[in-house]
């Protein structure tokens, strides 16, 4: 039986690879679907007949042809076995006519190398991958975490993409081992510049976990199912769109003050109708030598094409370029525009470019409004410089011991919540008798203690989307959080036993529940919180007290009120810990 006979009943489905930050498709994978049985059954039969590599190469070629109607601006992922990659010359020869017929370039194809790896000679595999890369093909390793891929091969090859196996993702977010492995691979990919993708995402908890771990690409039934037509865009399920939107919003509010917005770099766009000729675009470029390109828009002002100056002029100038192209549509030499909304941050723009683009670092990015109408363009180089400068400024403002920001971040966050008529809790955490720590066990031990508390607060901030923490200085921390998050945060710091150099230390947490329009500013909240801090420190042991503006009672939720340090009179209600949330929400 020949390879052609083996694959004659195989069809192809297509599944997008999505950005977990934006929900936008950044690539599409061609998946072979035999008429009966699975693809591995077919490959097993091919292997028994001694035609495994030939069959796999035929499948790869057919995958490219099946994606003929797919937008070539979005990379196509094609699966091949590791054994096939060792026969690079044969694979290249088979793919060349398929690429030519579909108008796709090698740089727009990602070859996903699948196991088994143990059955191929390592040197032959490395040689084959080098040959494929020299022609522009991108390399991804598939099924990482459940196959026989040696970790040393990741280091030697440095693939463009690593795809985590669905079995590994299935353990998220509850299995500590799976969580640790994904977190480690995310760190490895971040350090090496390799992109990391998760396969088989089928629950909202998994998607949230992947966002938190920094896995920027994902595919699975939860995000988008398979389609027979590679051109079909399947809208995200509502709950998934909400998660991605929440993630984007959370990142924006989590970012320290000063992170620039996209509109901070906005330039006027040179726009022309999408029907213009190449000659008209050339004239526009000649009239404005400082612009990077031209944006072609439809009748409503929405961008449809992006014409980059250098690539366009190379194509239409020269001895015959003008004669061949002048009167033809300029869109023949244009790309799909890279678009971002005006309310995005500079960091979100950099993530979008990193997720979706391989080569177009010099192109302008089109900024649009809610109706996708072009507002202008930004240059990637300027955004990179602006974000870098803001990060330097933020780093200079961090506390050198805890690496937490100063009170300014909570200042701005409180004023923002007041402006938005939101309910919130502002809290002050203080180490009891901190001077005694320094005097007894030394300044280094004191720094270690403050650093440990800072880490606990930073971890709480990462887990609680409505919480912001700052290190005011010394042993004082200022926090703004949500009413339904303050108990969790208190559990992280007040219920913890803090020990440094054998010395046990207690902490005091004073929290002020600020209802809508009960405080006018950060300054007023700070003024009301100051005496509450003294009352918290009057309670023996690690303490937590809570009240609200104008209340005549302070609730003691943690500590030993019968052994108060000072003479501050407190009305103690030991049951308040179980009922304060409902009571204050009702106020």
Automatic annotation (TrEMBL):
A Pfam family recorded for this sequence: EAL
Naturally occurring in which organism (per UniProt): Actinokineospora alba
InterPro entries from the UniProt entry: Cyclic-di-GMP_PDE-like (IPR050706), EAL_dom (IPR001633), EAL_sf (IPR035919), GGDEF_dom (IPR000160), Nucleotide_cyclase (IPR029787), Rev_trsase/Diguanyl_cyclase (IPR043128)
Name of the molecule in the record: Diguanylate cyclase (GGDEF) domain-containing protein
Domain of life, per lineage: Bacteria
Domain GGDEF positions: 422-549
Signal peptide: none
One function term, GO molecular function aspect: cyclic-guanylate-specific phosphodiesterase activity
Domain EAL: 1-240
């Amino acid at each position: 039986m020949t390879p052609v006979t083996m694959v004659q009943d195989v069809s192809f489905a297509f599944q997008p690879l999505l950005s977990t930050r934006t929900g936008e498709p950044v690539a599409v994978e061609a998946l072979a679907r035999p008429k009966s049985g699975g693809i591995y059954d077919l490959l097993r039969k091919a292997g028994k007949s001694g035609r495994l590599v030939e069959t796999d190469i035929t499948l790869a070629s057919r995958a490219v042809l099946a994606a003929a109607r797919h937008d070539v601006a979005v990379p196509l992922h094609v699966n091949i076995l590791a054994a096939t990659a060792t026969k690079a010359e044969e694979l290249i020869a088979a793919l060349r006519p398929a690429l030519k017929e579909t108008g796709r370039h090698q740089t727009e194809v990602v070859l996903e190398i699948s196991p088994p790896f143990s059955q191929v000679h390592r040197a032959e595999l490395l040689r084959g991958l080098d040959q494929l890369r020299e022609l522009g093909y991108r390399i991804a390793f598939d099924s990482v975490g459940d196959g026989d891929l040696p970790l040393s091969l990741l280091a030697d090859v440095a693939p463009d993409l690593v795809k985590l196996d669905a079995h590994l993702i299935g353990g998220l977010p509850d299995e500590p081992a799976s969580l640790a492995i994904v977190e480690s691979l995310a760190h490895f990919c971040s350090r090496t510049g390799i992109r990391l993708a998760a396969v088989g995402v089928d629950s909202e908890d998994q998607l949230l976990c992947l966002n938190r771990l920094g896995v920027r690409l994902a595919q699975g039934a939860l995000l988008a199912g398979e389609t027979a037509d590679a051109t079909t865009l399947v809208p995200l399920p509502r709950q998934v769109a909400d998660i991605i939107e929440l993630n984007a919003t959370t990142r924006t509010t989590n970012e320290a003050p000063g992170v620039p917005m996209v509109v901070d770099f906005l330039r006027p766009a040179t726009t022309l109708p999408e029907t213009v000729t190449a000659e008209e675009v050339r004239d526009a470029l000649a009239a404005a030598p400082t612009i990077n390109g031209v944006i072609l828009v439809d009748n409503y002002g929405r961008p449809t094409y992006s014409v980059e100056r250098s690539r366009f002029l190379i194509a239409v100038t020269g001895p015959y370029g003008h004669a061949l192209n002048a009167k033809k549509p300029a869109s023949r030499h244009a790309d799909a525009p890279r678009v971002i909304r005006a309310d995005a941050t500079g960091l979100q723009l950099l993530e979008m470019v990193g997720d979706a683009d391989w080569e177009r670092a010099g192109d302008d990015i089109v900024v649009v409004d809610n109706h996708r109408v072009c507002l202008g363009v930004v240059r990637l180089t300027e955004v990179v410089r602006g974000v870098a400068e803001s990060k330097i400024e933020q780093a200079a403002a961090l506390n050198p011991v805890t690496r937490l920001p100063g009170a300014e971040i909570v200042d701005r966050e409180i004023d923002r919540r007041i402006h938005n008529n939101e309910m919130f809790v502002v809290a002050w955490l203080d180490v009891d008798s901190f001077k005694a720590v320094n005097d007894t066990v030394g300044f280094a031990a004191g720094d270690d203690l403050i650093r440990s508390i800072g880490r606990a607060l930073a971890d709480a901030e990462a887990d609680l989307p409505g919480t912001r923490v700052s290190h005011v200085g010394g042993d004082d921390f200022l926090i703004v959080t949500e009413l339904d998050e303050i108990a969790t945060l208190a559990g992280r710091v007040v219920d913890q036993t803090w020990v440094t150099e054998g010395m046990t230390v207690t902490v005091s947490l004073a929290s002020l529940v600020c209802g809508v329009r009960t405080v006018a500013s950060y300054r007023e909240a700070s003024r009301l919180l100051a005496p509450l801090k003294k009352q918290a420190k009057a309670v023996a042991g690690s303490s937590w007290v809570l009240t609200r503006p104008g209340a005549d009672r302070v609730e003691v939720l943690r500590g030993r009120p019968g052994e108060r340090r000072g003479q501050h009179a407190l009305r103690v209600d030991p049951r308040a810990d179980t009922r304060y949330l409902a009571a204050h929400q009702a106020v």
